[in-house]
Amino acid sequence: MLASRNGKLLKVPANGVAAGAATAPAVALRDVRKVHGEGDAAVVALDAISVGFARGSFTAIMGPSGSGKSTLLHVAAGLDRPTSGSVALGDTELAGLSERRLTILRRERIGFVFQAFNLMPSLTVTQNIGLPLRLDGRRPRRSEVREVAARVGLDQRLRHRPCQLSGGQQQRVAIARALVTRPEVVFADEPTGALDTRTGRGVLALLREVVDADGHTVVMVTHDPVAAAHADRVILLADGQIAGMLEAPDADEVAEQLAHLGS
Considering the entire predicted model, what is its pTM? Predict the structure, then answer.
């Protein structure tokens, strides 16, 4: 497999982890295949994907429509099960977990950020941030909610409801909600897709900061080369397979490689 650093192609090991990455990834997919449907109607969404996401790294997943990037995110996050192959969160293999145990694992060890924010409109910022803890049977401490709200710049908005916030502020609430459980990995699906350019830059800077300052692992699906340029690594998908990787690319390099995939 090929990767690129500053315009130069690099060899990437079969497990998808570039040289120098952590040997024990936060998430590892091995020979993952995902097929939707059966028989003549079967569609291969992921075809023998092997990739690791290093701890404390920021990875962007990109590719043309239908390339399998959202399916990859969902399978890696335990939201969907692969048809074959294995997925591990740290040293935990997901295949052997019941749906109940998988739900608990996602709640305790994984954070999610979505394009549509997915906030509860009737709840305040405080209540939205603390929701994952309540779902886990824990009563959120005011201090931990305020701390994570301050981390995303919303400690003065704790009593507001989503309708009283801008789109960027709502996405910051969603990021705070994802961080409040101190997850091992944060998965973000088009987190800036519903935001204007300036607001999106702020959200991306925040995701970059939680990697650099807090050591979180972030895996993000995006269609935007500018957004992808915030990542340490960009994985390019085409037809359900890894078509290449870019290490610390700029937006122009990402756009160029995407254009090649499209052709």
Answer: 0.87
